[in-house]
Amino acid sequence: MASYVVLEPNSNELHGVDTVFVRDGLRWLAFLFPVFWLLWHRLWIEAALALALALGIGALATLEGFAGGTLLSLLVALFFGLEAPTLYLAALRRRGWREVGLVEADSAADAETRYLAETVAQPAAPAGRETRRSAEPIASSVPPGGRGQSAGLLFNPGRS
Fold this sequence. Notes:
single chain; three-stranded antiparallel beta sheet
């Protein structure tokens, strides 16, 4: 089963979009074509970094006596393939989305069904009280330092 992070817009500016499900795991297209994947998802700074890394590794590979160019390129591609969901989640947070839950499911359709079943099954709150969803973020609280959580290698909340 895969984990899906559930995000909703923080404001009413994003009309027509209610919920986004971001699957955690390796993104093959980000592994094979990191710059293009990042540009497709409008991650401009990350795409510039990936391009600079690719150009730097290419320049290093032309040096005589440097034999690790292929391995280094593979490691950078693997990093972007594994961290693509984390980078995308960070970009969505910067754009005004908030995490509302984490769902484990076999597919995106199953994740949506499970999430909706949990939120619709909530009993109505008395008038004047806020409702609290059971699909509360499991690991999405922001620590006191203001750094957001990450599902991958960059930052793991709760671990020292």
